[in-house]
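Hey, resending since the last one bounced:
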Amino acid sequence: MQIFIPNGRARCLMPVALILAFTFAHAQPQTDTKKPLRGDPVSAETPIEAVPYRSAFTDYRPLRDEPVAAWKDAHDMNATIGGWLVYAREARQPDTPTAAPTSAQVKDHAGHQGGQQ
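The C-alpha cells again:
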C-alpha cells in the first residue's frame, strides 16, 4: 500500500486547507436548542432551580455492641468442641466424592478409551 505525499506547493497548502476546514466547521452556530436558556447568573433576579438535597446520614445505622460472653465460658465451649484439633481434622478430610458416572456417560467416552490409558 502506497501513501500519496504531495510535492512542492501542494505540500504547503494541505495544512492550511485543513486548518481552514476545521476553523469553518468549528465556527458553525450551535443548532441544539433543546436546552432551556438560563438567565444571567450574576443577576439577583434570576430564578434559581431547587436543588434536591439528600444527606449521606439518612440511612445511617449506628454500630451496635454485640453481647460479649465471659472469656472463661468461651474457652470452656472451645474445649468442649475439641479446640483447634477439630478444625485441623476437618481441613484434612477429603472433599465429598462426586456421583459415579452413569452408563450413558461411560458410553459417550468409549472412543476415548473410556478415560483410561
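The chain has a mean pLDDT of 75.

Sorry for the duplicate.
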